[in-house]
Design brief:
187 residues, 6-stranded mixed beta sheet, 28% helix, 11 strands
Length: 187
């Protein structure tokens, strides 16, 4: 598919009104294929740019309640393990939570082609294993999709990721945790 652009000149203001379909790229194997998304219109004197309402995010939701994926890591893992291993734990949990929730509307919107560059993740640290297990239990009780990543063969819970959801829905479960790597969280 190609990018469609129509330019109309407004005779009263001399500005051009551009109506276009943005080219969005998605990958399949080693090929990148352009696709089309619904058009957005705006008045401009230059080339089209990403247009959003100031009151909404790229998914059309209010900016004060964005789609977010929360990831919590154990503090002792963050402090004691190599940074690559810690990053792997967070990635494992986040990827598993995305896969487990792949049919949910919130996950589809979070992973949509026009939102892919605007994903929000909040990476936090839990004081220890007990804290991670308590949050997982509360998420389970509330029916919120999540993944508690248990590193094998050690059988050690290292990370917890919630599926993408509105900040107002998932945020309260993680509100007592600190941002991962904050200076106050070091030994």
């Amino acid at each position: 598919p190609t990018v469609h652009t129509r330019i109309r000149k407004d005779s009263s203001s001399g500005m051009h009104r551009t109506v276009y379909r943005s080219a969005v790229l998605w990958c399949t194997g080693s090929r990148t294929i352009p696709t089309r998304i619904p058009h957005r219109a705006h008045a401009t004197r230059g080339p089209p740019t990403r247009v959003q309402s100031m009151a909404t995010d790229s998914t059309g939701a209010p900016r004060d309640d964005p789609l977010v994926q929360y990831v919590a890591l154990r503090k002792d893992v963050v402090v004691d393990w190599p940074v690559g291993a810690v990053a792997a734990q967070a990635a494992h949990a986040a990827t598993a939570a995305l896969w487990m929730s792949r049919d949910a509307q919130t996950t589809a919107a979070y992973c949509a082609a026009d939102n892919i560059d605007y994903m929000r993740k909040v990476v936090l640290e839990a004081p220890g294993e007990t804290s991670l297990l308590q949050i997982a239990a509360k998420l389970e009780e509330a029916g919120i999709c999540h993944k508690l990543w248990v590193e094998q063969p050690e059988n050690v819970p290292t990370a917890l990721a919630a599926a993408p959801n509105r900040k107002s829905v998932v945020g309260p479960f993680f509100k007592k945790l600190k941002l991962c790597g904050s200076t106050s969280s070091k030994k």
